[in-house]
Amino acid sequence: MATEFIEIDDSPIAEGGVTEGTTNDYDRVWDDLQAACDAQTNVSGLVVDAVKGGLVVDMGVRGFIPKSQIATRNLNNLERYIGQPIEARVLEIDREKGRVLLSERKVAEEKRLAERAATLSAITIGQTITGTVRRITEFGAFVDIGGIDGLLHVSDMAWERVEKPEEIVKVDDEIEVKVLKIERDGERISLGLKQLTDDPWTIARNDIKVGQVLEVEIIRLEKFGAIVKVLDGVEGVIPNRELSEKRIETPEGVVEVGQTVTAKLIEFRQRERRITLSIREAARASERQELHQFMTKQKEEYSTPTLGDLFGDVFSKFKKD
Question: Which residue from 38, 111, 124, 219 puts its CA 20 to 30 A from 63's CA?
Answer without folding.
Answer: 111
